[in-house]
Design a protein that fits this description.
The protein is an alpha/beta fold. The chain has one domain: 3-Layer(aba) Sandwich (Rossmann fold), CATH 3.40.50. The chain has 4 helices and 5 strands, in the order E-H-E-H-E-H-E-H-E.
Length: 126
Amino acid sequence: MSTNPLDHLRGARIAHLIESDGPGGAEQTLINLATCFNAVDCVNVAVVPAHGEGWLGRELAARGITVEPFELHRPVSPKTAGWLLATLRRHKITIAHSHEFTMAVYGAWAARRAGIPHVVTMHGSR
């Protein structure tokens, strides 16, 4: 019998969605989660800003995690929403995990359209 509490997730395909990519707490949490899920053979895809600092994408890629950069064309962007839905489908994602508000909104919309569960974590925001 396995003692790893994540074993029941083995084989899951998890999208980690975040709107920031500097070396902060939310970003470190995402790295830690994706690394732990990798250890139980989950497929991890991180959706990170295309034109940010780049720190998070580099850290994830160094750990073998697929990185999908997104562009937010304006605060409410149907183009970004459609791209996210297509990305979830292309990677056959089975659960989406959004960090912070903007990606919680886009993630909820895309996950609902994709028919998959969605989890949101707000990190220290009011």
